Amino acid sequence: MADRLFDRVLLPVASEKDAATTCRRLFERADEIGTIVAVHVVEKAGGGIDKAPVEQREENAEAIFAVVDEHCRGTGVDVEHRILYGTDVTETILDGADDEAASVIVFVPRESSRWANLLTGDTAYSLITETDRPVLVLPS
């Protein structure tokens, strides 16, 4: 694990609004961020019909990453992007944290909407309880 809590931040982002809110909150509290790895999960149906074409969801992810980049511009923080694919959002994020050797997972709980339910219901609880690394839950 990294020497500092914010050396390598895994930042799950579900939408452009979520990315903006999370980045604003993160930069209020962390002045020594090394690298942010922004991740967006494209949830697969696991044999069923996907909610939208993968290409459309990848384009959406790129728009979300652009918001992260905009908030990080001029801060001196390195930013990387990863589109993750999986049938379980929590498991996919935690696997991504392992793959990226993240020192901390940071997110803002989402309110309402389908994405909000995915990340604030069982997903948020699972992110906090099923990981082997620190998790920072920022206020919305």
Q: What is the radius of gyration? A: 14 Å
Pick out the low-confidence regions: none
**What is the ordering of alpha helices and beta strands?**
EHEHEHEHHE
What amount of the residues lies in strands?
Answer: 15-25%
Helix content range: 40-55%
What's the story with the biggest beta sheet? 5 strands, parallel
The overall strand count is 5
- Give the helix/strand class: alpha/beta
- The backbone outline, from C-alpha atoms, is globular
Average pLDDT, rounded to a whole number, is 86
Number of domains: 1
CATH class: Alpha Beta
How is this structure best described in words?
This protein is of the alpha/beta class and 140 residues long. It contains five helices and five strands; from the N terminus they run βαβαβαβααβ.
